[in-house]
């Protein structure tokens, strides 16, 4: 019999809705969370969704699926390192690696096709009906859509545990109107989930004031995401020759003159074909993982051990991560190689949304061969109908959106 992990309580393990499990169930509550994510349709669809480079441009690029798997690997490694090295953790009192893995695998479930530009455009299009936000959509998938029909909070979804939901809740401001300066937000109807996750209404109020209220597992997932996308997006950019040594050298001189010599020299050698990109990335990931440590949280927001600690990275590792992330934004994400196909994809998403909006709001006749989102016909409330439309479009893969759009254009000729 394995030793019980006292880092978590029954309250942390409680599920949103009753789980019907066999008598001989051998998995812990968080392993079930992880397995249900992996076997969900939403997770499989990530294989056809753009990470940065639109799917189809090359066979070797990361998709949302491969990115999520890499985030999970980094997240597990951070947990393993902390469990073995932190003075605060020991056998029987440790961070659960399956819980962090579940959060990492689920963190992008709600992202729409065509990457971040698709997300921002869908948010604009959905503005009259509460907007769209990828993290809020991930939460909606977990609590309302996965494993059955939408039946309301606690009645549909995958019956996730409290600790798992809290680990994916990076942002806790409710309502687009309350999110300042383009900040991330939850949908208004998700207030009920937020209140279930927290142990008091005071925490809900702190969140609406902009106070960062996060569990240690959420912080680990967030750092793992930063490490994974920074290294992998750079890796793919180098492989496709989006960067030149001259561009990178000018960027360092103009933007980050104090970046570490090891970063400058190794990346320059990579770009000149003198050093393997895989070794450069592996070195970064290993150095950044072993730079983290736990600090005691002097003002925890909850009694749970999940709020007893904060994650800290060394200043030098944090500076390296920040510099390479900035390089990606400036030289890769804003390159024509990324922006041109991304722009074409956003147009496809917009025209699909406009068609379905006109069907719902303008009572436009349904074109032959263009399926309606599930629930739209039966539902009478326009806001809910449009949320179903949003679910439908956000859940599409890049290729499915392209094929449906092609069919739409044929019908309109």
How does this model look, in words?
The protein is mainly α and 413 residues long. It has 3 domains: 10-208, Hypothetical protein af1432 (Orthogonal Bundle); 216-336, no CATH class; 337-412, no CATH class. 55% of the residues lie in helices and 2% in strands. The chain has helices spanning 10-13, 29-38, 41-45, 64-85, 97-106, 115-125, 134-145, 162-168, 191-197, 201-208, 216-239, 245-255, 261-271, 277-289, 315-333, 336-360, 382-394, 398-412; strands at 292-296, 309-313. The protein has a two-stranded antiparallel sheet with strand order 1-2. Helix 11 (216-239) packs antiparallel against helix 14 (277-289). The mean pLDDT is 92.
User: How many strands appear in the DSSP assignment?
Assistant: 2
Give the mean pLDDT. 92
Compute the separation of the termini in Å: 67 Å
Question: What CATH architecture of the largest domain do you see?
Answer: Orthogonal Bundle
Q: How big is the Rg? A: 22 Å
Instruction: Summarize the biggest pleated sheet.
Output: 2 strands, antiparallel
> Uncertain segments of ≥5 residues (pLDDT<50)?
none
One letter per element, helices H and strands E, the order comes to: HHHHHHHHHHHHHHEEHHHH
The fold-level CATH name of the largest domain is Hypothetical protein af1432
Q: Strand percentage, roughly?
A: under 5%
CATH C-level name of the largest domain:
Mainly Alpha
Structural class assignment? mainly alpha
Strand line-up in the sheet with most strands:
1-2
CATH superfamily of the largest domain: Hypothetical protein af1432
Dominant shape: globular
How many separate structural domains?
3
- Helix count equals 18
Helix content: 40-55%
